[in-house]
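Reading group handout, session on sequence-to-structure problems. Before we discuss, look at one worked example. The prompt was deliberately terse, the way you'd type it at a terminal:

> structure Alkane hydroxylase MAH1-like protein

The input record follows.
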Amino acid sequence: MLAGRDTTSAALTWFFCLVSMNPEVKTRILEELRANSHKTCESSAGQQEKYRVFDAEELNQSPLYESLRLYPPVPFEQASVLQPEVLPSGEAVRPGTKILIPLYTMARMESIWGKDCLEFKPARWITEKGKLKFEPSYKFMAFHSGPRICLGKEVAFTQMKSVAATLLFNFHFQVLEGHPVSPTLSIILQMEKGLKVRVRQRHPDALKQVTVQNQH
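And the output record:
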């Protein structure tokens, strides 16, 4: 949990930014969340709660995957070899040589993701049957790949989906006009100027009729 604190917050920042700047994506997410918002239950205190809290599985994952593709929380990885190796490109690598893997750049390569690689396009993660599309970890490397893939991947996804669904349903986010949105090069891919948004409660009157169960 502690190890993923900064990466999770950075990932959610980019997610909310991209969704707020793409109204059609936000509309589809809200339609799906509203379809689930009729589920009600009492809180542990038996009191009416003001906001609807969503479970992790109630959020369509494709926008989150697409956000992680474009803005991986860790923008680059470093590797080395113990024995002499030859890369698929034909380059020879000697032991001790440091290899930099630019995940941020790879997500923007047409040869990997197609001509629309620079677009925020959640639909690329949906199959013809409407299911979430699987992409091998060596292509989608937001959580690294192979035997050293992030051990906290599922925990991080559960956190992000629950937080994203709950906040999007209950609040409207709008990036302030003129606010520059650009990444800063560091171990964690954060926004250079942070993310300044205007937040307002989406439908306060309707939400007063909804009860939720505390998550433990």
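Points for discussion. First: The CA atoms of residues 50 and 204 lie 8 Å apart. Second: The beta strands are 77-79, 85-86, 92-93, 99-101, 171-175, 183-184, 190-191, 197-201.
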